[in-house]
């Protein structure tokens, strides 16, 4: 299924600056060979809609069944927000609305044809362009995108990263290892999409961690065109079961870990696990790299339907690669990866916490397993020259306090497991007090709130509960669950309830003394929160800096 390695990446200089660009400068190839609508219909097994009634508008008169084969398609769009002239618009029946009710809008934006289901055809018929009918428009979106962009044949080696925590961090590790090898790299995930040195914020590109199939295929085609040697794609469970990754030829897929999340969507851990495991099948990936430190990981390695390389911190786990942390400071984590064959990679990651060593080790193991054809010697030489893996991961244990003697970290983690992992690591780095500022999501799994409150309080000295991202829920109720849990289960803990997140951050920083660490969990890189169903600007990074200045810890502008 996969072609012999052909590294097409031009070397990138480490000093080259990044460039913010328009969405389509990354998510679409520059050139697309037009494909006739007839050929597309044949390959999709779609039928041309032939309404029982006569055409109702003059526009439709000119777009009869006979004329449709002459229509040339140069792109695919699954939403009206991303239609370009020459596209076929795939109208999907969603949970909230049917895409076909936006058919006219799509045509006004330049769509030359519409693909939808029988129900959608009823709406789309009057839009003035040929309508193709399929049984499953969501599958057709991925299939049509793969056909139009020829994504099965791309040279770019694709890595998928899934798991409950650490997806974003691990994608940046993969990108950094690829760059260290002197190759052009790409990335797509919760924070941004990157092709070479061009970046677009995910908030300007549909907001989804794993974008819809048309965007992902367009992005992959652009990467191929721009000679990106390899790219790391963050794959959420919604991305897998929503068909967003269908048709993309992942070379190696990484499983970081698995713990409670998204139960509002999946109902049970079993169903959530099954959604993730669908990635580890020959339909989606050639190989897998899986962490087997716990039972879920061991099970994932057993149930994967593709060849697996296992990785563990636990020396007793019998993994292919065992990871040992040798030294850890707030600035870096030094680690050794030992292969069962005896091969060893000694290196460093420029982030604090044992889990960052694990994420970096996953990236290294995946690159070694990939069809890039990199040997352990190549890798040792590249990382040696560069002094290890040094990703800059926006909003993941990101130091927001500069040189101030109070250290403040901003982080996107919003699960019990990520709170526990990061706080336990930070605990080791201070003899002073450890502060936790956090809240919990609204309109999402309520059962995880007490567990988050527990994880926030176990090893900390002071906890500040604030609003986080209430969406349409009453934020007071969310805070009450968190505060009640802490007061009941950790009566000795110093706890404050401060509704406004910026004021909560200020409260923690006002109480902190030199040597203390303040951890702000949840907001990470984000620049907004959803309150009462509306997006409101808020940046934890800015709030931290404002508070540090107001408390006299920072003097710079
Ligand atoms: C459950 C889920 O994943 N839902 C996604 C799904 O929504 P839906 O099926 O309800 O679609 P809909 O809103 O009814 O719209 C139907 C169709 O009409 C189209 N449309 C709609 C309106 C319009 O003006 N024009 C238009 O063309 C839409 O593009 C869509 O194709 O398709 C929509 C269009 O792409 C997505 O925005 C929406 O994600 C919602 C917003 C969401 O919150 N998804 C989350 C759960 C998610 O996917 N999260 C994961 C990360 C999870 C993690 O942190 O691990 C992610 O990958 O982002
Ligand atoms: N291997 C790991 N195990 C546990 N926690 C981790 C690991 N790697 C990173 N983390 C922490 O988990 C939190 C989430 O990290 P990250 O954003 O990388 O994960 P994610 O899976 O992309 O999450 P999301 O889907 O919510 O964006 C952060 O606190 C991060 O520091």
UniProtKB/TrEMBL annotation:
HAMAP family: MurE. Pfam families: Mur_ligase, Mur_ligase_C, Mur_ligase_M. The keyword Transmembrane does not apply. The lineage of its organism: Bacteria, Bacillati, Actinomycetota, Actinomycetes, Micrococcales. It comes from Pseudoclavibacter endophyticus. Coiled coil: none annotated. It is found in: Cytoplasm. NCBIfam families: murE. Residues 395-524 form the Mur ligase C-terminal domain. Keywords: ATP-binding, Cell cycle, Cell division, Cell shape, Cell wall biogenesis/degradation, Cytoplasm, Ligase, Magnesium, Nucleotide-binding, Peptidoglycan synthesis. Carboxylation is probably crucial for Mg(2+) binding and, consequently, for the gamma-phosphate positioning of ATP. This is UDP-N-acetylmuramyl-tripeptide synthetase. Its EC number is 6.3.2.-. InterPro entries: Mur-like_cat_sf, Mur_ligase_C, Mur_ligase_C_dom_sf, Mur_ligase_cen, Mur_ligase_N, MurE/MurF_N, UDP-N-AcMur-Glu-dNH2Pim_ligase. GO terms for biological process: cell division; cell wall organization; peptidoglycan biosynthetic process; regulation of cell shape. GO terms for cellular component: cytoplasm.
